[in-house]
Amino acid sequence: MSTGGRRVVGEIEGLLKELAPQVLGGLVRRFGQFDAAEDAVQEALLAASLQWGREGVPDNPRGWLFSVASRRLVDEFRSASARRRRETEVALKDVTAEVPGTDDTLELLFLCAHPALSGPSQLALTLRAVGGLTTAEVAQAFLVPESTMAQRISRAKQLIKRSGRGFEAPPEAERGARLSVVRQVLYLIFNEGYTASGGPALQRAELTAEAIRLTRLLRAVLPKDGETAGLLALMLLTDARRRARTDADGNLVPLDAQDRTLWSKEQITEGVALVSATLGRGPLGPYQLQAAIAAIHDEAPGDDETDWPQILALYEVLEKIAPGPVVTLNRAVAVARANGPLAGLAVLAEIGDDARMEGNHRVEAVRAHLLERAGFRAEAHDAFNRAAKLTASVPERRYLEGKALTVLE
């Protein structure tokens, strides 16, 4: 295939990925039947990928997809004799006359973040239905067999169906809570991509890119929501460092040793602009604060020039409005950099018995680094080894084991 041909194919694939959740949202809103609607959309996407490459993209690509998927759905309804009543209802509708004029992506995100679903199911369903990933790709992202992921997604759809909740926006009283879940799901997808929970690679760029894309969609429909803007800024400012986080062999490079010339200036500029436009313009939320912290890191010319006292002040505010052991863990690092490693270890002791952090390798990793900075090398060696045994990430384990070996030198 020529370079021009590959470019056209890439452009079509990108367009289909953008339109898929919009078409699925329109079908679910109109016909219900989430599972059947998704199958119909997948068939329409396949037809489009074959036909558009030969004949070109139609003038109204979303309308084309919606019409094809609608026909597929009606054909499916008609094929089952037990669905005669539904066939009659659907047949009365002209599927080509009503192409949705609005983007239902937000409602689809709300549906996938249904409170009846577990966290893993929310993540999986969002990536499958809104992100456009195949079941195999979602399974690979979470390091489980495809059959396991298929069952998880199927159960999630059945739970939504049994809940009796239609494809309508949540009541005003629930909207804030549901929006928080949507943001959290997108944040978790990003985190899984930025630092994979297991496997041979430190990061999965396709997941971070998908999380950023979906957050841009969310912000497009909620342009005045400060926390959504803060979440997008946080993702951009964090992802800006991606190229510098591993060396040529895939080994982890810690923040203080990264080549900052590899950081994405474009993402940093956009992220800082979002933070500047958001802070002080409305209620302060945790994503905005984390984005402000990330901006301080990204704007510092080097590790020694980082404004750690300012970062510490922001973590103290964050701990007041969104307390939790992970925030305390990060505050311990900031305290250590601002006031010394012993002060940081004292903060770390606050979460030593927190059951929520049991088995979390990052607690031991931070402890090891602080012990090393304080000069307790034997204790640091033991902590690095404990952290290495707790992580399922191969690059992180390799880095921690290497630190355990070198800390005694």
Tell me what you see in this structure.
- With 409 residues, this protein is an all-alpha fold.
- The protein contains 19 helices and two strands.
- Strands 1-2 form a two-stranded parallel ribbon.
- It is elongated, with a radius of gyration of 24 Å.
- 40% of the residues are buried.
* Helix-strand category: mainly alpha
Shape field:
elongated
Biggest sheet, strands in spatial order?
1-2
- What is the helical fraction, as a range of percent? 55-70%
The radius of gyration is 24 Å
The major beta sheet can be summarized as: 2 strands, parallel
Strand segment count:
2
Mean pLDDT: 85
Ends: how far apart? 55 Å
Q: List SSEs in N-to-C order.
A: HHHHHHHHHEHHHHHHHHHEH
- List the uncertain runs: 90-99
Number of helices: 19
Strand content: under 5%
